[in-house]
Specification:
single chain; 162 residues; alpha+beta; Mago nashi protein; six-stranded antiparallel β-sheet; two-stranded antiparallel sheet; 3 helices; 8 strands; disordered N terminus
Amino acid sequence: MRLATFQSLIAICIFLSLNSTEVFASNSTYQTYRFTWEGAFDGTVFIEVKTDINGGDLVAAWIGHPDKSKHVRLTAEETAYLADQLEITEFWTAVASNRCKAGMVGRIVSMGCRDGSMWTLEVSKGERNHTLIEQSPQSGAIYILGNLLYRMSGLQLRQGLY
């Protein structure tokens, strides 16, 4: 196959996938979850779930470890449980805790949390979107939902999420 033909084929595939994602996202019965965990010592984990009426597809990757990538077909019950957790944890109205915000603690200048990990969770349902970003959370919506997605993925980090 000529290079130009191959490049055109790739461009068409990208175009079709982007358009199908837009159609997929515009339907309010479907949800997309994207969780990124950037560990100080273990690299980055990316987990994405796209739900449909029969369940959902979960794709997980531990960046730098291609042999650890996972694809899991979730049942309708599992995706319903995930959606319920959004409401239980009040994800749609949650804000970052700023626990690691730099500032003064008494007479000591604190630079915030320097070690640990960054957690990012993005959820889309129809036209509704919400993103939370926390450094080393110990509770709250992002902690609960991030750990749930991690467990559902089947990935095994040395220490788990921290």
